Write a sequence for this structure.
């Protein structure tokens, strides 16, 4: 069960309203690397995790992320507080228009959300659960969590880099640091599973697990520990990259005769005959002086 | 520049068409952990990476993932090959209906995509770039890549667990193994950056980087290396979890007087008076015999 | 700040796993009328509401909805618990396939989410913030809240109607009833604003506020208090429904001469001449024996 | 059957093109509270409503909303008319770039939609049927309709507040007023159902219908008619908020032995051991001088 | 202005309710090739088209498509009519569950939409304006319209192929045929623009307009009128496919020195050193017995 | 199998970074008419096409479009190269804020994607497979391909019209021209199918294939080859537009008696009585002085 304490986890002090900065901050409210995504990623994992230690930690951190959501949302509301009342009460049309369209998405946020904090990213795209990559296998999910914390840390770093308001900067520093702490916890939990690589249960097939296929070739080909050294077999030859199973590289399915026949009917009906050169809509469209196969206007 | 060789990277041999299995396989064609997501994740990173070794590797692997996309897509097409011609040519209404609705999403895929391989997941949800978590910072992106490979490996493992067709199982084994190999390469590249933790450039604030907040309390609280030991300060006390900056835990913004006034007008106009008990729409709706504050129908 | 208590708000007792029922229950976990939508609707309103009483209530109820989210998510996890381990450990391919494809979306949820509770609706569509209709004006938002509670109540009612498991039915009854209680609170808060109709600040234009336009005509036209009686002027005449301002019903804009000229160039370049009958791609495509204006195959 | 009269429902007179204002207006063309959403909400309800009076009204109003869609779309087209021809005909690159990027989303709309009126909101997000909250139960749907009209009224009010063009302002006033009229009709239809509260058929459970849980506590706790008075039981005690059914607040499911065993295997394989402190990827990544449990860079 | 006549454009006679068939029919109600998509495609084009003849036709056909939307929606409602009342009134739990989960998405549609006709496709995915490809240039838009009519015709053909109910089949035949008629009108309008190829205003660059690049090579390479004959230059040589401008095939930008310096800092900070072989998280995760570069579990 | 050559298909030379122009260019990277959409449209068709010539061509062109995706993505990266390092390294807050918010979506792209090329359109909307209209029937799909090439050609034309950088303009000219060449190939393939109109297999019903319904009437009605001439029967009379099958224009379904009864219960429970005039929530909300049926505030 969730409970709420009316104090924020971190005090928010905004120097002056700034709707454009507000719209940037939304990145961590309703954006893909934001706090709702974090909270929901850990919450959905926590609900189904069978390991009591991890379950406890996941709900601890999910709850903290909800508290961060409240902090960043409060920052957004404070930054929008200048425009909010004026828009609602209709004080000054032309000034209003200028104020909310000075950059970014602030006009959308003002018009549609009335200067509140909406679950959209800084580009006004609504939050979607497609951002959540929980799949219910801890050896994968905890790698996802580590990566998610790393990404969130970077977005906060960038927000700090474009903010001059000291109170906002201060709160962002707290939020950024907590992502580091969470990453450390998730790392501990992952490496407390032994073994955790390869993730899941099935081992890889030995004949394919150590090959590196050099699929992109030309000036710029490089070697490094990711494709060189004892563990790697480096496959350069284009012929050996195709049909690596030794087969013919074709796709086939065994069909019943009724299936086969229906497919043949379909193929016959829709055949593009290679043996003649039809007049086409493009020929018609190129106009009378264009010749049969005009590539452009004369 | 991309080029194409008409042989598949792995030969596909399907024993018999099965539209339902086809719809499961779509998970790795147009699903969040699928091959298009993988290819696009690495391709977008490769385009902007400044490090020549990583750039090379990212395009190598992106290209391989496109080749995997072709393999899994060919599996889908072969599994759908029985229903395709019959639907197109209209051979047998009732039988057709039964065949495409035997389970899962196969009816959608047949109706809308004509038995082809569509960029949707196994639940028919269209692929979205919201699945791509590239953010342009290698110390975060490579953690994302490691996690993505881990997730893809698991989905292949689950697909193998529900497949009985030996040719499909065989190809899935190859695809699963390659995710392991890619994860290894990405791990090497990440750890070749020194240091890579915390990700990005800014260090954490020392006062918040080692704290663990026990936000979820009750029976089931656990300790482990993720919240216990030399590096962790464990914060249990609810009072110390709020307003950790030592402030009042409130959100505030300095407003200009016109802003303040507009907000006050807005607040006055929309005040919910706590001091009287209005008749409401629910009261009206509960009906004449229900009394003023009915909680349900009598 | 949010906190968490390890006990659920309501005890969950599932009689036997049932992945199909699990996928139905997701409607209230990650669906449009579900608990996350409710929690986020009230949370975003609460963050920016200027009225202390409403702000308190909104966060109270948002927090309760998060606790409901945990209850319904726990129901989903329990209903999926039979398939989860088997899928992860690979115990029995054919049986597994049958089990997860017995109906609905259970295969998607198993494959992609490993039998956890995902933020998708019962049709596997990811949750989106497009479900949230918060706009930051209490005289509108509280009507939205009343409506949202009414909808959620109905979905729970339907879930109860299709469930036979007594423990699940019991918990659903609790959740359904709380929507009724929340609706009552929101009604009280709305009607404590005086006046609250019309919503917002601007009055309607008297010449259009009492008209009812009978746009759909024919057998079935009906009158009732919604379009009949002292307050309504019923407009039946098609002529009086168009251009109700008394103008010509056209759209016009004053253009600068360069703008006008560019538009004229554009119009001239792309004119469809009404005065001749071109041969078309359809004519070509209908085949040699079809005549110029074939409507179908001969 | 729908028919069309070439005159608009309201004459549109735009003083001068303004692509930025055009992009704001899109909020009511392709936005969540816009005219397409309104038309489709009532149309889908009207198709399945069993009550002849409501069915008639729903189609009347749906048809009027389609006519409003045409009015607002015509406003958008007129406001874009200055940029449209110039972009199509390529008159003046640098000027063009400046003109379409002066603010907001106008560049997107020009580039992608050629200066037409697209079904996107003012932030360029495509319209989605996720905005439609029709659920097929009149006691809920008509509350949704009332709320939707209230929201639409507010968005028009805000658009009027940021518009200086008198012709646009005039048409917006008409559109805003009609939302008030529609709300009145929907209110009448709702309250003509007796009883209509609680919505749907099932009554609430008496033990939970009158409780108010004070989930958010601290300075700012308030009482009002929404949680105080004869009908309400106010639950303040955290202990009485959890497991309100009197159970243990845990989630459980009865599993078959094979299910149990598979889950145990899964748990054992993926256990995070709490009893030792592993070296982690973060430790490796923090660099040689960082010590085993670095919280940041030294 | 739109108006409505209470008679459908085509009479709908359903032999018996069938929720599964209803969910298939949704493909043309709320699916990508369905009637709403058609209506909105032509309506948005019609609003901004400068040509009076095309404008008239676009609104004629948009209006007819809305009338078709009503027909297909009515079919859905009739097919759902058996389940609707039972679900709402709660008559028979177990039977209800079986009935709505017999296949496809019918459970979602019943639960969430109460047996109405929702703006989703047959896979329950909400309609999105991303389906609309209007771009405001008639020489492109009319080709889109021709293609859209062709696709819609095919989906109706497939629906007819899976339907046994004679009344439904009959109405589908009407709807299918109208797509053919509309395609003919759009073809006429397109070819009445002279010239209409290439679409738009700018001619192609002669050096690239007639080349065909054989990018996919191997067994299965074919020639036909699409890449062979007088108009085509066939480019087979991989060397001549890259950097066709004769340059070095690299991407470059001229940077200011501050920009250059910042990029160099970034590159240095995040360099993956190719010259040493780090221990990685995968190495840690493979477990103590696995060796430094395990490719799988031993 | 796909392979990659490190040289681009066209050399990219950017004169100076310009994040705003970068965001415009994204239209053809991650937008609906962009290169990923093109590549995936042809790739999915190629995988399932039964005709060897078309299959070859589709994969040829899909591969070329992937190569174009790389070119346009490289343009985006080069245009963003000025802001990228500065944002990552934190060089200059205020300057940074100004630079990334000078217009359009550049702030989103910088913040969220770090100045890389993301799979979003110029309005920051993530790419979705809803853009792909492949349905698996060549007589429809090739019309879709022709239309898609036409649209892409226009977007490139518009991008050229707003670009002053000569290197970018040059590359855009190449990309635009290739769309013309592709359209020509697709036209040839379509018209090599005989017949190809009507698309698919079923002929239209003769009684409906040649009718043109004049649904939009009034000043502006026009005739042209699209609705006039030997092939067309022009239906003007509103009566003849409804119920064209000669029936009553109603929707009906034969119900079993239990179904009928449940529906009647539902209708009775939710009836809106037309015979009395209820007090409503709007009446309550309009305030004491407003009278029972206030249309606005007095």
């Amino acid at each position: 069960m969730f409970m709420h304490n009316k104090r924020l986890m971190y005090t928010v002090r905004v120097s002056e309203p700034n709707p454009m900065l507000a719209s940037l901050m939304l990145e961590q409210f309703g954006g893909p690397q934001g706090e709702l995504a974090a909270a929901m990623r850990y919450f959905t994992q926590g609900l189904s995790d069978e390991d009591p230690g991890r379950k406890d930690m996941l709900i601890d951190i999910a709850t903290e992320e909800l508290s961060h959501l409240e902090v960043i949302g409060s920052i957004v509301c404070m930054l929008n507080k200048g425009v909010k009342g004026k828009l609602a009460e209709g004080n000054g049309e032309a000034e209003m228009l200028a104020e909310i369209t000075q950059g970014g998405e602030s006009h959308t946020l003002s018009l549609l959300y009335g200067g509140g904090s909406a679950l959209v990213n800084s580009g006004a795209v609504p939050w979607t659960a497609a951002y959540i990559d929980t799949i219910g296998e801890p050896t994968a999910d905890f790698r996802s969590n580590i990566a998610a914390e790393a990404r969130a840390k970077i977005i906060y770093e960038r927000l700090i880099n474009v903010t001059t308001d000291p109170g906002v900067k201060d709160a962002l520093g707290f939020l950024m640091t907590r992502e580091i702490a969470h990453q450390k916890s998730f790392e501990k939990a992952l490496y407390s599973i032994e073994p955790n690589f390869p993730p899941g249960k099935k081992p890889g097939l030995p004949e394919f697990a150590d090959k590196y296929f050099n699929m992109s070739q030309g000036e710029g080909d490089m070697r490094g520990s990711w494709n060189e050294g004892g563990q790697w077999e480096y496959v350069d030859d284009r012929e050996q990259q195709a049909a690596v199973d030794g087969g013919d590289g074709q796709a086939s399915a065994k069909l019943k005769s009724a299936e086969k026949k229906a497919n043949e009917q379909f193929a016959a009906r829709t055949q593009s005959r290679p043996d003649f050169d039809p007049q086409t809509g493009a020929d018609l469209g190129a106009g009378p002086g264009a010749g049969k196969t005009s590539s452009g206007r004369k």
Notes: Residues 291-298 of chain A have pLDDT under 50 and may be disordered. The first helix of chain A runs from residue 19 to 25.
